[in-house]
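new request in #modeling-help
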Amino acid sequence: MDYLLEALHVTKVFGSLKANDDVTLKVKPGEIHAFLGENGAGKSTLVKMIYGALQPTSGEFRWMGKTVTIPSPAAARKLGVGMVFQHFSLFEALTVAENIALAMPGAFDMRKLSGRIARVSRDYGLPLEPSAVVADLSVGERQRIEIVRCLLQEPKLLIMDEPTAVLTPQEADQLFITLQRLASEGCAVIYISHRLEEVKRLCHNVTILRHGKVVANVDPGRETAASLARLMVGGDIHVVKSAREDRRGAARLKLDRLRLPADGPFAVELRNISLEVRAGEVVAIAGVAGNGQQELFDAVSGERSLAQAAMLVIDGKPMGHDGVNTRRNAGAAFVPEERLGHGAVPAFTLSQNVVLTRHSSDAALVRSGLVSSGGAAGVSERIVRDFDVRKGKPDPEARSLSGGNLQKFVVGRELDRRPGVLVINQPTWGVDAGASATIRQAIVDLARQGSAVLVISQDLDEIFEIADRIAVISRGELSEAYPASGLTSEKIGLLMAGAHEIRQTSGKETAHAARA
Amino acid sequence: MNDQVLSVILTIITASTPLLLAAIGELVVERSGVLNLGVEGMMAVGAVSGFGAALMTGNPYAGVLAALVAGALLSLLFGFLTLTMVANQVATGLALTLLGLGVSGLMGEAFVGQPGVHLERLSIPGLSGIPFIGPILFGQDFLVYLSLVIVAAVSYMLFRTRTGLVIRAVGDSHQSAHALGYSVVGVRYLCVMFGGACSGLAGGYLSLAYTPQWVENMTAGRGWIALALVVFSSWLPWRIVVGAYLFGAITVMGFSLQAYGIGIPSQLLSALPYVVTVMVLVLISRNRALMRANTPACLGQPFVPDR
Ligand SMILES: Nc1ncnc2c1ncn2[C@@H]1O[C@H](COP(=O)(O)OP(=O)(O)OP(=O)(O)O)[C@@H](O)[C@H]1O
Ligand SMILES: [Mg+2]
């Protein structure tokens, strides 16, 4: 049998840490091959070497039977390898078309390229506006750019590092159809994901990594999600206990007819958003990416100031005009969606990143106006312990953590404060099953101790697991929050669509009125 | 009266051209994410090299070439320190200014008081003779035209070609550019050297066309104005032309008003361009949307690829 790609005894060492240890695996053409493993197991490291973004410490790669060195991503692309990175490699100030042009060889013709982008994105059901500027797009939309960028290169091997983590169920289904079509055309796919059901549905072959070593190579058809999870962790996975109660207290976070104008041509305008989150409950906001989640988070966290102070009330105090720090001092905590760059400064160490969000609210971190590095290190160690953050050295830079481990850290940093109000955007994006359970349990526990928690998420399974009430955001408008027990995914889907229709008809009416 | 207006306009053009040359070079450097504060130093070395080469060969074009090469060489030193050795860009740029000013003083000791070689102005029979418009449009030295050609070329290159796209990408996110396989350091070296060559040319213009003689510190802070102009233009090439000519005009106005004996202290008039620079920078920085769209996000940040 001819393999497309073989990795033979590949080892990658970072300092004292073996991220990949004697990895041997083979990928056939036309095969969808999953890499599974806990956060920090070394999946991203392995695929980065295949894409030429990292060099192996020892071992070799064979491409269609021939030994190759892959010195750079350009060389990998020339071989026919395309990759969607876990942390995007996009340029915020450039347009979608320009971002894609940067990865395309050959003649430089933006108009023709825009046409091709529009066509491919329509063919594969991944809608993209070629002239939109990336800075104005949501994470889900950014992901689509990365995927379309790969598809345009017509690769022989497509690597996807957690592509569905930020996609909606419908978008993910569309992607699976795309991948299956590519596979049937002979393209091999390396697929990394923490969603085991998805892997079972889609993949032909699964390689499981643990602590950098290959521990199993199995046929997903013969396994259950639970048996795959056991192989990954080497033990059983905790089930989130949320014990829904109706004994809820006073409103701690209140949005009152909140409005926020769009701050760019492709941004969403928030209209009339009203919501109450009471002590003791978790309220989740579901919705398709790019419907105002980012804007809502910015408005609540204070990254953008509101027109009237009373639009946002925290513990009875109108705070719409206050900045992030004042809101934090009032007992609120915020976890943004993008962990690397927004949630944490990549080049700062973990303890420095602790200081960044907690210097004004945490007395232990600042002593007579000076940063106390001992205090920060203490807090950072506690977070690392409580949330099981795996890392290579005692106080590493944020960017050297694997995606899921950084997410655990960023969430842990805020949960560790025991905030009265927690607002969290995509809490378990790219986090493995075990760690997701830890984070979700911590969120629920926080609420049960009397805090108000607002979760913005695109993962319906997650929402049903932890939320007491669910609201749906659509085109900048928020539905009423319904008790989770009375909702199904179908009903939520209808809510998303329903809200669209109401707005569209009312939009048409005003247009008519204006013309009349 | 007409003659006076004409002479003022001609002086404005000569006063603006060095600002334009230095600023358009620095714009490309900053678009690639590098902040080179050594413009003043590179201009000074360009000025003295250009003057010396022209004096020794008797050919002003040899002077122009020497100025260009000298500026590029000095910027290569900056590139080596900040890109290869990853030294702090701000500190290195300031050091480069001091070094350039010092070296130019040393090199130029022998030239003080010597009459220089003048870069002649274009003269097209028929056209240059047209009253008023002729001298303005067809009677300049070639560097005036070249400076505008460079702006047009840079504008085209940055926004219409792959090269320009790569430069903007490297300035926006060196991490992503590296992940896609672009040589961040290589692109930046080329941009830094282009900027150095332009600064050298700007210096050469001062000692070959503006005032064809060598005086120590003859750059007189123009490098700093050029740096401010890049921000003024919000990193868009054509706005640099507007800015450079505006500042050239303000400088010349200062002189003219003095000549007319208007009762404003001369110190205030000569400070005028700098005061206006500060005011314009403040006004521009207030417009966040404008700044966000074009400011290179990686400006001044060191890049170390992780392997
Ligand atoms: N540049 C680097 N320098 C030092 N250590 C690194 C670097 N990149 C990754 N590591 C370490 O290598 C290990 C494996 O990381 P990797 O990103 O491959 O994990 P992963 O399997 O992709 O996890 P996740 O599911 O969380 O994305 C981690 O412990 C991480 O901290
Ligand atoms: Mg990873």
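bot summary: Residues 499-516 of chain A have pLDDT under 50 and may be disordered.
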